[in-house]
Design brief:
The complex is a heterodimer of chains A (about 210) and B (about 250). Chain A has helices at about 1-5, 10-40, 45-60, 65-75, 85-110, 110-120, 125-155, 170-175, 180-210. Chain A has a single domain (about 1-210), classed as MetI-like fold, CATH 1.10.3720. By secondary structure, chain A is mostly helical. The chains are: A mainly alpha (about 210), B alpha/beta (about 250). Chain A: Keywords: Amino-acid transport, Cell membrane, Membrane, Transmembrane, Transmembrane helix, Transport. Chain A: It is found in: Cell membrane.
């Protein structure tokens, strides 16, 4: 218990760092994932290829490698950003590949005929997707997107190794101060639980609100 | 031939793999004409119907609508599709929208109509298909026949030049077929240009105005009254009345 009380502000800063990473990276991942899902079902072949390459590369690369690529690679091209922003980029892009596939699975649950009906009425592809397909796909992708964002929250721990303030990284300081490693980690775990259970609760509410009703 | 040609297919070919499903199809549909396409399952009736608004692509040949060749994928195609309504076998109503919203969606999004104006017109159309009381229900709350009538109203809301019916009664219980056919008959009497695909020729024939009911190569033939009671299989009795698929 002492570990927590003695280092409350350290834990607090770490937790805040993790929450910030999670929120910003989630927003980026959701936006990019939705866009890429749209690309992957688009009538334009080059967009489909782009979406497929995006997903294939990001989904099949270790996240740590992606962090290295972003943190060490981008500055070589003259792009120097705060480490936290690099971390959001890496996490967001990585997770967007998984969001994209979840959304695409949701798109496939909407009967094809409804898309055909929309097109036969003269609606363009973006209109068909935005007004007919996605609102229905959304309902079935709430649970898998929730899981993906929980994974993102936990993956944000990797950012600690790249000089970003986040929850897991606090153990180094605590260790140097001589606190029991077990209790340090117990409280870190509680911090992660706070974040992930909040995401779970949020998605439970979303699912109750939008998930059923047909 | 009834007036000038509105829909014209010339030498249309399409393969599904090795299956040559559309073989050099020529079809002319005059303005205000009702053409019934019949044939057994898998003979390409639906495919033919779906090529007219390019839900299916073709490999060779030409399709012109009101003198305009069918454009490639894109905005021009969407504009042209808005002129040709389609009614599907499985209704394909938008499950997440009410009956009224199903009908107003395309007029608002595609035709840029005002919401209240589109809603007013939608209620008129619902009244016309006998469903004025169901405007605020969801498709799942309606019977098949009611859903199909909503689908017809939805297609009509775009003020199309022609309507394509892809087996409109095949997914319906027998007692619900009539209510849909009555709506179709009324449309035919009002002069709507229609292409009706059906497995059972009598349904298509009943949807068409009498006496000239169907077209084979665009020439109207009178439907022998006995056709409805003809015990022979549809293919055998069809050629005299309707355009049949090979």
């Amino acid at each position: 218990m002492n570990v927590l009380l003695d280092n409350f502000s350290l834990y607090g800063k770490g937790l805040l760092g993790t929450v910030e990473l999670t929120v910003y990276a989630s927003l980026l991942a959701l936006a990019l994932g939705l866009l890429m899902a749209g690309f992957r079902v688009a009538p334009v072949a080059s967009l489909r290829v782009f979406g497929t390459v995006w997903v294939t590369v990001l989904r099949n690369t270790p996240l740590t490698l992606l962090f290295f690529a972003v943190v060490l690679g981008l500055p070589r091209f003259g792009l120097v950003l705060p480490f936290q922003l690099f971390a959001v980029l890496a996490l967001g892009c990585y997770t967007s590949a998984f969001i994209c596939e979840a959304v695409r699975a949701g798109i496939n649950t909407v009967p094809k005929g409804q898309g055909e009906a929309a097109r036969s009425l003269g609606m363009t592809f973006p209109q068909t997707l935005g007004d007919v397909v996605l609102p229905q796909a959304f309902r079935s992708v709430i649970p898998p997107i929730g899981s993906t964002l929980i994974a993102l929250a936990k993956n944000s721990a990797i950012a600690g190794s790249f000089s970003v303030v986040e929850l897991l990284g606090t153990y180094k300081t605590l260790n140097e101060l001589g606190y029991s490693i077990v209790w340090s980690f117990v409280w870190i775990a509680v911090g992660y639980l706070l974040v992930t259970l909040t995401i779970s609760a949020l998605f439970n509410v979303l699912e109750k609100r939008w998930g059923v009703a047909r | 031939m009834a007036g000038e040609a509105l829909i014209e297919l010339r030498g249309v070919n399409k393969h599904y793999g090795k299956l040559h499903v559309l073989q050099d199809i020529d079809l002319t549909v005059g303005r205000g004409e009702v053409v019934v396409v019949i044939g057994p399952s898998g003979s390409g009736k639906s495919t033919l119907c779906r090529t007219i608004n390019r839900l299916e692509t073709i490999e060779s040949g030409t399709i012109t609508l009101d003198g305009t060749p069918l454009p490639q994928e894109g905005r021009a195609l969407a504009g042209l599709r808005a002129e040709v309504g389609m009614v599907f076998q499985s209704f394909n109503l938008f499950a997440h929208k009410t009956v009224l919203d199903n009908i107003t969606l395309a007029p608002v999004k595609v035709r840029r109509q005002k919401k209240d104006e589109a809603a007013r017109r939608a209620r008129e159309l619902l009244d016309r298909v006998g469903l004025a009381a169901h405007a605020d229900k969801y498709p799942a709350q309606l019977s098949g026949g009611q859903q199909q009538r909503v689908a017809i109203a939805r297609a009509l809301a775009m003020d199309p030049k022609a309507l394509l019916f892809d087996e409109p009664t095949s997914a319906l219980d027998p007692e619900m077929i009539n209510e849909v056919l009555e709506v179709m008959q009324q449309l035919a009497r009002d002069g709507m240009t229609m292409v009706v695909v059906c497995r059972i020729p009598t349904d298509g024939a009943r949807a068409a105005p009498s006496p000239p009911c169907c077209s084979a190569h665009s020439s109207p033939w009178p439907l022998p009254p006995a056709a409805a009671r003809d015990p022979r299989p549809p293919r055998a009795r069809a050629p005299n009345n309707c355009r049949t698929m090979p």
